[in-house]
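Below is a filled-in request sheet from our internal design queue. Each sheet records the structural input a requester submitted and the sequence that came back. We keep these sheets so that new team members can see what a complete request looks like end to end.

REQUESTER: design group, bay 2
PRIORITY: normal
MODE: inverse folding
CHAIN LENGTH: 163
BACKBONE (tokenized):
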């Protein structure tokens, strides 16, 4: 497995709301950089939620967690899944993120590593005709901060230019 870059300015979320807001900001910025008409759609997927960061946590308290959002990248007609994966990597690279294609995942894929420790990944579909999967993850934060009452959108559309 390839080594992950060391974040230049790691930022541990102080609240779940902060983690979720940052993840959603990365998602919105990503979709805005993709071909016109692209939508992020998690209606048949999991959307956002928390996952433990330490499978061997023994306490006390709740294990550390990260906030992740899983979605599909629905491109406009005529744009293939492979093109969406490549374009997404270029969008992330344009922000200065370290972007790599990893050998230990289905190809094509791109992994973006942000200076603040947030991780972005897009993977091509497992079967032809399906859209790529996009996941954005926060750094780990204390599990005691987890909240289940913060909603997340099931679809993220492009922002109209100039808005």
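RETURNED SEQUENCE:
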């Amino acid at each position: 497995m390839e080594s992950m870059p060391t974040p230049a300015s790691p930022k541990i979320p102080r609240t779940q709301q902060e983690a979720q807001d940052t993840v959603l900001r990365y998602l919105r910025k990503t979709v805005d950089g993709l071909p016109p008409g692209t939508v992020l759609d998690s209606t048949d997927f999991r959307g956002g939620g928390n996952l433990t960061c330490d499978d061997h946590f023994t306490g006390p308290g709740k294990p550390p967690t990260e906030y992740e959002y899983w979605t599909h990248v629905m491109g406009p007609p005529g744009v293939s899944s492979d093109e969406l994966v490549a374009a997404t990597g270029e969008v992330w690279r344009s922000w200065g993120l370290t972007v790599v294609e990893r050998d230990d995942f289905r190809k094509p894929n791109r992994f973006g590593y942000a200076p603040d420790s947030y991780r972005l990944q897009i993977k091509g579909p497992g079967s032809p005709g399906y859209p790529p999967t996009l996941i954005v993850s926060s750094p780990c934060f204390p599990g005691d901060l987890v909240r289940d009452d913060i909603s997340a959108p099931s679809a993220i559309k492009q922002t109209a230019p100039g808005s």
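SHEET NOTES:
- The helical segments are 16-33, 81-94.
- The beta strands are 39-41, 47-52, 65-74, 98-100, 109-113, 119-123, 133-137, 155-157.
FILED BY: M.R.
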